[in-house]
Design brief:
Elements: E1 20-22, E2 29-31, E3 36-43, H1 47-55, E4 66-73, H2 75-80, H3 89-93
Antiparallel strand pairs: 1-2, 3-4
């Protein structure tokens, strides 16, 4: 029977069994090595509230803490939420790492007179 993926959709290699982790979206228990893992860092408050807090704060050098979250999805939720995409046969065989997209920092605009 032909194999769809070289690793069988998992990254356990020589381990016999791996523990399960719950999917963040639906709660399904997924093997830890098969789950789609994403680590997100977000601000605790949205941008408009952050502006209000900065205007009314008592300490100048106080920084608002961030929210650090590890999201783990099952395969079906990862595809449904578009965290990962379905790839065709040729692209699935590619061993090259995926192209990473970096968000550029906006440069401060200078005003000329």
């Amino acid at each position: 029977m032909p194999k769809k993926r070289r690793n069988g959709g998992r990254s356990k290699k020589n381990r016999g069994h791996t523990g399960g982790v719950p999917c963040t979206h639906c709660g399904r228990i997924v093997p830890k090595d098969k789950a789609i893992k994403r680590y997100t860092v977000r601000n605790m408050v949205d941008a408009s509230s952050l502006r209000d807090i900065k205007d009314n704060r008592a300490f100048e050098n106080f920084s608002i803490p961030k929210l650090y979250t590890k999201l783990q999805y099952c395969i079906s939720c990862g595809i449904h939420l578009r965290v990962v995409r379905v790839r065709n046969h040729e692209v699935r065989r590619s061993r090259a790492p995926p192209v990473r997209i970096f968000k550029r920092e906006e440069e401060p605009k200078t005003v000329t007179n």
